[in-house]
Amino acid sequence: MNRPSVLCVVGATGTGKTAAALALAEALHGAVINVDSRQVYAHIPIVTAQPTAEEQARCPHLLYGYLPLDEPVQAGSFARQLADTVEKVRAMGRLPILVGGTGLYLRAFLHGIAPVPPIPEAVRAAVLARCRAYGPEALHCRLAEVDPVSAARIHPRDSQRICRALEVFDATGEPLSLWHARTRPVALVRGVVLGLAATLPELTPRLAQRIQAMLAAGALEEMAQAWRICPNRSAPGFSGIGCPELLAVLHGEMDLATAQAAWLANTRAYAKRQMTWFRKEKVHWVAPTDHARMVEWARRALEKRE
Q1: 106 with 131, same domain?
Q2: In what order do the strands lie in the sheet with 190-196?
């Protein structure tokens, strides 16, 4: 059976996925759909490196900057929302181009993910209380004991994901990684996956330049405004790299130079985890700036029949 195809563009943070997606969308009459767990949030487009208004004007962009900062996002529910969005793009007569670095969300959409049972509010509240009392790093240590697979892919300061994983374990007695291993199809599509290849030494100076550009574009001022809208450091939207560092500056806990260095170190560590994740997936790797080759390969891959 021939299933409709979607084109997916993946890679570590800072590899140039936005520019690649625009080149592909313009060549293949596509629409860009976000598959990044941080770029869904409103009020922080600079810090989360969302496409600019000028970039979004070049072709349709969907699922960017629509979620309130205090609202969590989970892989299973996002995969279902992604499936609906893909159908909307097809109805436009355009090719769905899924772009992002959150590998779990893409896997959930393409291959399915088992639904986790509802978590009792008492369990959720207890985990959140422990996180507020002891900090996300302490809870990450416990997560490493009960669910080392999830702990390996979650940053020690990502309070939202750490709490989510511990909630599942405390409520069900089974690690979240085991639930994720039990797949259930979300959408009957064929995913053609293009990856932007870069080594960590190549990427590190580009990440430093990008952070500097974000600060020059007003990242600190953006975070100050976001804090006025949502004055809660535990808000899911503030769990992404860059947000805790800038909030520390705004609260007088860290100077900007120290925060910038921490931001780079944390981003580099995240990029390394992304590279490890995508190496396990079926991906066709290309140089990040070779847009002509990307278009040529995508055309051939999309024309193939199963």
Answers
A1: no
A2: 61-62, 30-34, 95-99, 5-10, 190-196, 284-286
